[in-house]
Amino acid sequence: MSEEVKLNLGAIEAVMQLPPAPVVLLAVGGDEPNVTTIGMFNVFSVDPTIVGIGIKSSRFSYKLLEESDDFSLNVPGRDLLEHVVKCGKHSGSRLNKFSEVGLTPKPGSRIRSPTIAECPLALEVKKLENIDRGDWDHIWYMGKVVHADIDKDYDRSNVLLYWDGEFWTPEMVQGKE
Ligand SMILES: Cc1cc2nc3c(=O)[nH]c(=O)nc-3n(C[C@H](O)[C@H](O)[C@H](O)COP(=O)(O)O)c2cc1C
Asked: Is there an atom of ligand 1 within 6 Å of 34 CB?
């Protein structure tokens, strides 16, 4: 019998072997909102429902997150791939991404920041706290989901994942247990 060989792996290479969280579009800001592509998304508590996003301080959205009490996280389908790429490439410090990229801000039900009309699922989030360690490359903003709406025909196998430079969609392997 051949002996199983385990290879040593760096920390980030090890993490990259796992599938990522879904890509979301962050919309933040009251009067002049901005939209940005985010891959660092996590659920921190189920009840109450607390979600968080990681953002670099160099982003224009970081400034808006600091100034705002809330934000929305909008889940795009694969049909919005081009929009997702553009929102993740250009900075709102130089252009109005909503109009340039072709997305429609929709007034939030419970927050000042808008949601995105074209996205089939939108979470409205009230900011609770952030983790800014100084020596981490992302600052985490966590907040409570205070409202959510979803398209009637929402298809969860259609959400986008961003994995090692490539976009994916999830696929179910087997039915319910
Ligand atoms: C798929 C994808 C995921 C991204 N995820 C993040 C992220 O989680 N955090 C972050 O700070 N930037 C992330 N970015 C980069 C920002 O979206 C990008 O720098 C954007 O231009 C920032 O826009 P802003 O300056 O208007 O905020 C991602 C980009 C792409 C394409």
From this structure: yes
For the stretch 31-60, pLDDT in tens is 999 999 999 999 999 999 999 999 999 999
Alpha helices in the chain (DSSP H): 11-15, 60-67, 81-87, 97-101
Domain carrying residue 95: 21-168
CA 1–ligand 1 middle distance (angstroms):
48
Evaluate whether residue 101 is within a structural domain. Answer: yes
**Which CATH number belongs to the domain containing residue 45 in this structure?**
2.30.110.10
Q: Give the model confidence (pLDDT) of 78-130 as tens digits.
A: 999 999 999 999 999 999 999 999 999 999 999 999 999 999 999 999 999 99
> pTM here?
0.96
Please work out whether the CB of residue 40 comes within 6 Å of at least one atom of ligand 1: yes
Give domain status of residue 25, yes or no. yes
- Ligand 1 neighbourhood includes 37 CB (under 6 angstroms): yes
Provide the domain count of the chain: 1
Alpha-carbon distance of 170 to 147, in angstroms, equals 25
